[in-house]
Specification:
alpha+beta, Endonuclease III, domain 1, Nucleoside Triphosphate Pyrophosphohydrolase, 7-stranded mixed β-sheet, 10 strands, globular, DNA repair, MutY_C, DNA_glycosylase, metal ion binding
């Protein structure tokens, strides 16, 4: 061990477990500390009564950012699966995956859940999932549904192309694949529209038991922290590394449970901002946590215990593409949340749309609203909305004139040139757009619906308030109606 005369510095440290990694002389000639074969020394500080009792137990540890030790991998799997069996959330798609005996129905249930969960929180998905599976419990049921029905049920969940692709995929399975879901991740990704590498791996491992890893946002966070990967996880080299780690770690006997456990860990324990490290079942294998602990104890032990950490790993040669770059050093105040490094997000563009809430009163005095269908491609494809026009930059001051001209041209009726009443605006934020709706109101009598027969109207209809609520209408339009 290092200079034993420094041992007094150990006694003031409170009980905690720290793993100390030192670079040995077996460094590769590349000069990169990441390519050292390290010797791992593990101590429980409260067990060290005197330096004489601190016996080194070296263990070969390969590349700093990998899982290559079979003993460590087995321990990681065992700890994680044990935790998952006790702590997993009770979710409807997990029940179906565990109890459904028909392979195709089980895969379908997993598929629907994975598509709904893309970019959407679990709490928001549960009700939609239950209603979906009640309405279309099998692939055959969904294949027979219309896109309008799918959009109606999906309304409010966002990213509407997901529902469309699910319906298209179900139709393909029934009409071209004899009703049988592809059995491997490779075939799932190849055959089903909207199914990428992650979704394919999730379906294959959970529904069919294929031994394959998965990488989503939650898994990325767990892997980046456990292996101290500090580069942007979105770049191709980091992504390849993360997938390789996921495939290496996945349990051979219970791949589906293991993958769900990794996602569960990232969602509930290894969270982005407030990770519960002391509750983590695999904290013993987390290099991020160990590094943070070393740094907190650095003033006490740094002179006697020179340790290799991820910052030094990059600083030694600057050649490690997976470490924190020298330009973005480890930040003490962030602790374990230094990893993963946040991807710089592109700021959403700003748009303004002039919208007309066109209303009429029926004989019973209740209102009806005039809706038109959006184009079959692009944002909010195929959904219903109030007559609207996207304003070009700088047209905001002419919004009323532009909306009036749009109504006249598209509806072909002189009601469009009547006085529009401005009622306010609504901001709705899409993933990539800050959309401001500039809202006008126009009330028309029932006898004023004589549209110009020479004008080709878009798909349109009048709906009651009740029909409005259950139609395939975006959350943004529901905000518009409420103003």
């Amino acid at each position: 061990m290092a200079d034993t005369q420094q041992s007094a510095g150990w006694r003031g440290v409170r009980a905690c477990e720290v793993e100390l990694f030192w670079a040995t002389s077996r460094a590769s000639r590349s000069g990169s500390a990441c390519h050292f074969w390290h010797t791992c020394h593990r101590f429980t500080l409260t067990d060290i009564e005197s330096p004489a009792l601190a016996v080194e137990v070296p263990r070969s540890q390969p590349l700093f950012h990998t899982f290559s030790d079979a003993v460590e991998i087995r321990d990681f799997q065992k700890r994680l699966l044990s935790w998952y069996s006790k702590c997993k959330r009770d979710l409807p798609w997990r029940k179906l995956a565990a109890t459904e005996t028909d392979d195709d129905r089980r895969a379908y249930a997993v598929w629907v859940s994975e598509i709904m969960l893309q970019q959407t929180q679990v709490a928001s998905v549960i009700n939609y999932y239950n209603r979906w599976m009640q309405k279309w419990p099998t692939l055959q049921d969904l294949a027979e549904a219309s896109l309008e029905e799918v959009n109606e049920l999906w309304a409010g969940l966002g990213y509407y192309s997901r529902g469309k692709r699910l319906q298209e995929g179900a139709h393909k399975v029934v009409s071209q694949l004899e009703g049988h879901m592809p059995r491997t991740a490779e075939e799932l990704q190849k055959q089903l529209p909207g199914v990428g590498k992650y979704t394919a791996g999730a379906i294959a491992s959970i529904a069919f038991g294929q031994v394959t890893g998965v990488v989503d946002g939650n898994v990325t966070r767990v892997l980046c922290r456990t292996r101290a990967i500090g580069t942007d996880p979105a770049n191709s080299a980091a992504a390849d590394t993360l997938w390789a780690l996921a495939h290496t770690l996945v349990d051979q006997t219970h791949p589906g449970d293991f993958n769900q456990a990794m996602m569960e860990l990232g969602a509930t324990v290894c969270t982005p901002k407030t990770p519960l490290c002391m509750e983590c079942p695999v904290k013993q294998h987390c290099r991020d946590r160990l590094n943070s602990t070393k740094r907190l104890l650095g003033k006490t032990v740094s002179k006697s215990l020179p340790v290799l950490d991820m910052e030094e790993c990059a600083a030694v040669s600057g050649s490690c593409s997976l470490c924190l770059p020298p330009s973005v050093p480890w930040e003490p105040s962030l602790g374990v949340t230094n990893f993963p490094r946040k991807t710089t997000k592109k700021q959403p563009r700003t748009e303004h749309t002039a919208t007309c809430v066109l209303q009429r009163r029926c004989s019973d005095g209740n209102p009806e609203y005039f809706l038109v269908r959006r184009a079959s491609s692009g944002l909010l494809a195929g959904l219903w909305e109030f007559p609207s026009i996207l304003l070009e930059q700088g047209q905001e001051k002419q919004q009323k004139v532009i909306l009036t001209d749009h109504l006249l041209a598209s509806l072909g009726n002189d009601l469009a040139v009547r006085q529009l009443q401005y009622v306010g605006e609504v901001l709705h934020i899409f993933s990539h757009i800050r959309q401001t709706y500039l809202i006008y109101f126009l009330n028309v009598d029932k006898d004023e619906e004589n549209w110009n027969k020479n004008v080709e109207l878009p798909a349109s209809r009048w709906v009651t308030k009740a029909e409005f609520q259950i139609s395939a209408i975006s959350t943004a339009m529901k905000k518009v109606r409420k103003i």
